Amino acid sequence: MSTQNRVPRSIAFRCSAAILAALQVFAITPAPVLAQPPGQSDDKDNGASTKTPIKHVIVIIGENRTFDHIFATYQPVHGETIDNLLSKGIVNANGTPGPKFALAAQNSAQDTAADLYQVSPTGKSPYPTLPAPLAGGPKTPFISSLAVAEAVENGLPNTQYYTYLTTGGTGLASGAPDTRVPNVNNLPNGPFQLTPGVPYDAYAA
To answer: Three-state DSSP class for 134?
Structure first.
């Protein structure tokens, strides 16, 4: 297959500061329902025989993102519970460090294995400040116009999503400290916010 004049499809799933645009939702579908004998219901509701009323499970997968990256400050409604950074007191509702911020401290370590890979390296010690997050992605968008976006990509739900393929350039050299992140070179050792410095449609490493 010729790749001339084609744009990598991966741009449609680029990492963004707000991952909601890159979420992929998968649902497990049941086997086809067979015709029932006369007098029998097609309803296969087994809710009464299960330990919980859960009937469907939806798995949300964000590319290169963790649960806390997406839902760190989600506050459950009545009847719900959640295990996230906010519920553990690691961050406050506004994203600032919480009373138990130290629980999320990251460690440096020394890899002394000959193959430069260890599952549990030695010499662990907390970072005084986090290594600076680095910029990733192009300085300017790969796609220059909405017309080009619609020509090289198909299947997006509406024009708004095609528009996102034409935006999001970092304006920064790839691999350099991402100066869109506030306090990038002096981050406390723990979770930090990407917003508002890294906008919704931006490329990010």
So the answer is: strand
Give me 8's structure tokens: 């990598």
> Could you say which DSSP state residue 34 is in?
P
The C-alpha atoms of residue 71 and residue 199 are separated, in whole angstroms, by 17
User: Bridge partners of 84?
Assistant: none
User: Both tokens of residue 90?
Assistant: 């690691």
Q: Looking at the whole model, is its pTM more than 0.85?
A: no
Nearest to 161 by CA among 60, 14, 58, 27: 14
Token output for 193: 């916010």
How far is the first Cα of the chain from the last one, in angstroms, to the nearest whole number?
30
pLDDT of residue 20: 36
Tens digits of residue pLDDT in 65-77? 788 888 899 999 9
Strand partners, 122: 110
Q: What is the 3-state secondary structure (H, E, C) of 60-121?
A: EEECCCCHHHHHCCCCCCCCCCCCCCCCCCCECCCCCECCCHHHHCCEEEECCCCCCCCCCC
User: Dihedrals φ, ψ of 17, to 5°?
Assistant: -65, -40
